[in-house]
Amino acid sequence: MVKVLHHNNINEEVLHSKKIAIIGYGSQGHAHALNLKESGFDVVVGLRGGKSWDKAVEDGVDVCSVAEATAAADIIMVLLPDEHQPKVYEESIKPHLQPGNALVFAHGFNIHFSQIVPPADVDVFLVAPKGPGHLVRRTYTEGAGVPALYAVYQDYSGQARELALAYAKGIGSARAGVLETTFQEETETDLFGEQAVLCGGATSLIKAGFETLVEAGYQPEVAYFECLHELKLIVDLLYEGGLSNMRYSISDTAQWGDFVSGPRVVNEDTKARMKDILKDIQTGVFAKGWILENQANRPQFNAINRNENNHLIEQVGRELRALMPFIKKPVNEKKEVVVNGSR
Ligand SMILES: NC(=O)C1=CN([C@@H]2O[C@H](COP(=O)(O)OP(=O)(O)OC[C@H]3O[C@@H](n4cnc5c(N)ncnc54)[C@H](OP(=O)(O)O)[C@@H]3O)[C@@H](O)[C@H]2O)C=CC1
Ligand SMILES: CC[C@](O)(C(C)=O)C(=O)O
Ligand SMILES: [Mg+2]
Ligand SMILES: [Mg+2]
Residues that bind Mg(2+) 1, according to the entry (predicted)? Predict the structure, then answer.
């Protein structure tokens, strides 16, 4: 088995003498900045003026422009949306990089697909938490952590690996486990996971189940509880103890249905399509499409997003979640509103 490093295997001393700039204060940015600060590291956040700037100030972290943060720091962690990174890098990061600095990412996209080409005299590595930033923060405050991958692309200082591990420990990931990968493996597996399983696969499965029940005449509220709300409770059991733990808790009737009907939904055809998706990722077809979509100001992204937000499952969900105050506030912290009026 591959070596998974934990808290006690990692010496974070190397990072204590460094200043860390966190560029961006969104999902990952706020979590890295606050976790590192509370782990005792010297952190500055680099931003443009706006919503994130105000939030960072409110949270009590030092904030300045991206250029100033880069110039002041030894370790520059780029936590901007992937599609904005190349421009901000060229304009505000690259001109202020010093030999021996470390340029760090939480996802390998821009390095692997050559959208950012760093100079030869800096370290380049990634520390990629395997979970959403808001959970990187929440689990840290609970004394736990989200596992992370690390990879070294360029080791100018001879310390890149040590720095990456110390950084992973600082954000709390070593409480869960940290393991080594390459930029290629992180980029391709992360894109595949989010498209085919975690995000795209899961939302498509939920919607297909919901629509099947509603189109057959069942109440949308019943379909919502069955296909979305309860999924979290089932996934908690998978997270805690794998497939067998979940199957231990469900009825034998459900387990028999799992065995005989699951493979009717997700089968060799589905796997063949997963392989197509992986091929598009490996060959750069997906990356090219996403880069062009952004260059065109996201016509498809915005249209699909509008339709998805108005889907019946979202309307029903907003109403039902309002009746369950124990559910944590959505991470976007927006008040839940019914888009385009109630149904
Ligand atoms: N989301 C996640 O959980 C995960 C993300 N990653 C990776 O982490 C990186 C960051 O992703 P994520 O946290 O989702 O990003 P977000 O979309 O949450 O980050 C937005 C942040 O970037 C700032 N920003 C955007 N454009 C600019 C700009 N031009 N100049 C300065 N600041 C800007 C925003 O500030 P403003 O308010 O001013 O717009 C905001 O603070 C990506 O590489 C992603 O792939 C990896 C693992 C999981
Ligand atoms: C699953 C989506 C993710 O890869 C993540 C939270 O790990 C992302 O890019 O946001
Ligand atoms: Mg991911
Ligand atoms: Mg991702």
Answer: 190, 194
Q: Whole-prediction pTM value?
A: 0.96
Is 112 among the catalytic positions?
no
Q: May I ask the CATH class of domain 7-181?
A: alpha beta
Binding residue per annotation — 226? yes
Cβ 178 under 6 angstroms from ligand 1: no
| Residues in contact with ligand 2 (CB, 6 Å cut-off) | 131-132, 190, 194, 198-199
State the catalytic residue, choosing from 107, 112, 229, 311.
Answer: 107
For the record, the structure tokens of 196 come out as: 């085919």
**What are the structural domain ranges in the chain?**
7-181, 193-321
Residues 6+ apart with CB under 8 A from 317: 224, 228, 229
Q: Virtual CA dihedral for 243, 198, 341, 223, nearest 10 degrees? A: -20
66 lines ligand 1 (CB under 6 A): yes
Query: Which spans in the chain are helix H?
Result: 13-16, 27-38, 51-58, 66-72, 85-88, 109-112, 133-141, 160-170, 183-192, 200-215, 220-224, 230-249, 252-265, 268-282, 285-295, 299-309, 312-321
Per-residue pLDDT reduced to its tens digit, 229-253: 999 999 999 999 999 999 999 999 9
Ligand 2 atom at minimum distance from 133 CA: 6
Which residue in 75, 79, 94, 93 sits closest to 167, CA to CA?
A: 75
ipTM score for this prediction = 0.99
